[in-house]
Amino acid sequence: MALALPNPLPSSLLLLLLMMACSTSAQTYRNQSLGSSLTAQDGGSSWASPSGDFSFGFQRIGNGGYLLAIWFSQIPEKTIVWAANRNNLVPRGSKVELTTDGQFVLNDPEGKEIWRANITRSGVAYAAMLDSGNLVLATQNSVYLWESFNLPTDTILPTNTIGRLGKLVARYSETNYSNGRFQFSLKSDGNLVLQTRDVILDTANSEYWSSETAGSGFQVVFNESGSIYVAAVNGSIKMISSNAVSMQDFYQRAILEYDGVFRHYVYPRRLNISNSTSSPLAWTPLSPFIPSNICTDTSERIGSGACGFNSYCQLGDNQRPRCLCPEGYAYIDPDDVWKGCKANFIQQSCNESLPEKDLFYLHTMLETNWPESDYEHSEGQTEDWCRNACLGDCFCAAAIYADDGVCWKKKFPLSNGRKDPKQGGKALIKIRKDDSTFKPSDADSKKKDRSTLILIGSVLLSSSVFFNILLLLAAFLAVFRFDYFKPKVVQRYPVMPGMNLRSFTYEELKKATDGFKEELGHGAFATVFKGALESDHGKPVAVKKLNNIVTQGDLEFKAEVSAIGRTNHKNLVQLLGFSNEGQHRLIVYEFMSRGSLANFLFGGSRPNWYQRIQIAFGTARGLLYLHEECSTQIIHCDIKPQNILLDDSLTPRISDFGLAKLLKTDQTRTMTGIRGTKGYVAPEWFRNMPVTVKVDVYSFGILLLEIICCRKSFEADVQNEDQMILADWVYDCYKERKLDLLLGNDEEAMSDMKRVERYVMIAIWCIQEDPSLRPTMKKVIQMMEGAVEVPVPPDPSSFNRSI
């Protein structure tokens, strides 16, 4: 007799109902209701997914602010896969809240909105962190109105898809989560591409990899089996990464990393790992890497390539690119190697009357190139010809000599640099001999030096002069021994540690200036006196007595003076020392015998055109050093002819740099008495806009016009009132092509009208009302030298015409 099986329906239905009840209970527990919030703080709470694999909340980034993010919470690395405020870290105490009216908003501690989820429909009932790594905002019926999977940052996870016009944007660096220099994008035509980006404009530049699916692709898919592919409209697929990966055994993520490479990673789940601890758990990249060689695959006409300008890219371990500086160059920011490199020397002048060819040498680098920096090439040449051609060309920053006899000249800045065995040929990097810390190691140079020494020695030994030299040497040694064994005199003036700055007493400087008797000049915040240092054989100095200074302590004052003292450039006035006693704070500079540029330009007879050109160049180079090349960036804030001093050889020296931080804020905003005219003050001073290095560029533009025209920026006593404001008059003459009216009877300048026009155009660019339109000082120098073309400038502004 067969046993009758019970009807299976009731038990199955019971099991199904039980599962639904459990599921509903768990989901309710994980849902975050309206009014829920999280606060940015160390050790703060987070919203976890049901399995605990993912969490949503705040993560502190280094020693800085907090990132509102999603991360893998079961692994020690807490790897971040999504971020809301990647470009704007928030401080401790910031809060993200699902408001009672269904909005999802991040505010800082003062209540300022930092980020908001873009929800186009009403009806949000709860938020939930899902086990897929997707954060959702849903209705009561679990319809998703917003989800993080639709707005990926730099990472995609299994089950995540990207549609047309969707993209990933790499972070800036390993520890900086803000938008970086590369993006992964499915274009509107269905082609998946990797592109370089202009970080400032937040736009794409050129493509350096393509899936070649234009016209067919419509979606990027990352499935649970570990495959990443472009799905086509007709159902076919273009595989990007095919790896058989078990979701039960491994976590997965695919990321466009800060170096521009798209990589697929896996991480073992702890529950399925043996007890062996011989190899620590870690994220492991799977092949392929896309592209296979980021250094050689990126080459763009606009932009720097894989690394910054003047650097070169070389693959290191795990195909990670390394950004390196060639000899003669150093990182602009050692903490941010992607910014590129700067020259450690003054670049070659294009002044034909002062040829500098012999002041430079070429350093050889094999298998290195900077494509897209070419401006000239010659075929069928020898390497010696190529070397001489570059050394004799002031525009040539480097040359590439190929084995087939082709010589390529490279302009500054160098871009798309790479070092790779496939490059072939050799790079010849131009470096100044005296200013660079790197010296030529060429064997021929050493051989030549040895030959010269032998020749000199032979001549000396063959004449009686040799014996006279021996007698002088013996006398010198006797004096040296006597001086060496004398009791040493204690240094009269203390020296600031690590620097050659003397710390004077107030009485010592009072005596040096004969009771502050001979005044050299004065302004709203300081008076300058001539003095002589008794301890330095009566060396003349300029002693600046600060009248209005920020009420700061000794340490702060010394820190600011130290920053000024660390500057060292031939176009800056050298700081010699300081005095800091109570309310007496003085700064001691070297004395400039030729006075100020104001006296030179406006003192009587018109200086010759060549001297004015050199003064303009030198002033520009000094400002470039302050803005980009010294250890601490310095904004001068008061560039004008009175602050440009001249030494015996008429070399311009910028003075008063670095003093802005020592002065009261209201003083730095009233450094000129001419507020209603086009003086030297940039318009942003009057608009409470952020003050950047562009305020100095504006002032330099006005100064350049004064140098060209040998007249002040504002002159009320003129016959034609249209000429009262120099900048207005110059622009009118430029538009009407009557620049000769600016030069008076200056025959030297009249014979160099192309340069005059170029300088006028540069000055007009410098005095643009919008600071973003003004060039950097580096660009100014390149335009002045003729290395960069000067575009036609617009009307500088109407701002100052109406005030």
UniProtKB/TrEMBL annotation:
It is an enzyme of class 2 (transferase). It is a single-pass type I membrane protein. ATP binds at residue 545. The chain crosses the membrane at residues 453-480. Its EC number is 2.7.11.1. It holds the Pfam family B_lectin. It catalyses: L-seryl-[protein] + ATP = O-phospho-L-seryl-[protein] + ADP + H(+); L-threonyl-[protein] + ATP = O-phospho-L-threonyl-[protein] + ADP + H(+). Keywords: ATP-binding, Disulfide bond, EGF-like domain, Glycoprotein, Kinase, Lectin, Membrane, Nucleotide-binding, Receptor, Serine/threonine-protein kinase, Signal, Transferase, Transmembrane, Transmembrane helix. Gene3D superfamilies: Bulb-type lectin domain, Phosphorylase Kinase, domain 1, Transferase(Phosphotransferase) domain 1. InterPro entries: Bulb-type_lectin_dom, Bulb-type_lectin_dom_sf, G-type_lectin_kinases/EP1-like, Kinase-like_dom_sf, Prot_kinase_dom, Protein_kinase_ATP_BS, Ser/Thr_kinase_AS, SRK-like_kinase. Residues 514-788 form the Protein kinase domain. This is Receptor-like serine/threonine-protein kinase. It comes from Carya illinoinensis.
